[in-house]
Amino acid sequence: MRLDKFLKVSRLIKRRTVAKDVSDQGRVWINGRDAKPSSTVKVGDELTIQFGQKKVTVRVEQLTESTRKEDAAHMYTLLREEANNG
């Protein structure tokens, strides 16, 4: 599954266009490597996303083309959440 689609479907990022922009800005990594919006996401991958002053790392648990809001959190496991203080 494409990275931008995964971020939207899992609701880590609300809109696919925003997910694409964040990836284009170099603020998303897959297994420690820079990721483009078209990068392929697989089960078991670790995604790190820079949200302003916060860096979130999750492990991909499942891939589904669409999901209900209640089920979106089952698509990933939160591994780390770090605040970037200056």
From TrEMBL:
- What's the domain of life for this entry? Bacteria
Q: Which UniProt keywords apply?
A: Protein biosynthesis, RNA-binding, rRNA-binding, tRNA-binding
Identification of the protein by name: RQC P-site tRNA stabilizing factor
The cross-references to Pfam families, in alphabetical order and at most eight, read: S4 (PF01479)
The text of the family note is: Belongs to the RqcP family.
Instruction: State the protein's purpose.
Output: Key component of the ribosome quality control system (RQC), a ribosome-associated complex that mediates the extraction of incompletely synthesized nascent chains from stalled ribosomes and their subsequent degradation. RqcH recruits Ala-charged tRNA, and with RqcP directs the elongation of stalled nascent chains on 50S ribosomal subunits, leading to non-templated C-terminal alanine extensions (Ala tail). The Ala tail promotes nascent chain degradation. RqcP is associated with the translocation-like movement of the peptidyl-tRNA from the A-site into the P-site.
Q: Which SUPFAM superfamilies does this chain map to?
A: Alpha-L RNA-binding motif
Q: Name one GO molecular function term.
A: ribosomal large subunit binding
Species name? Paenibacillus chitinolyticus
- Looking at the record, the residues that make up the RNA-binding S4 domain are 1-62
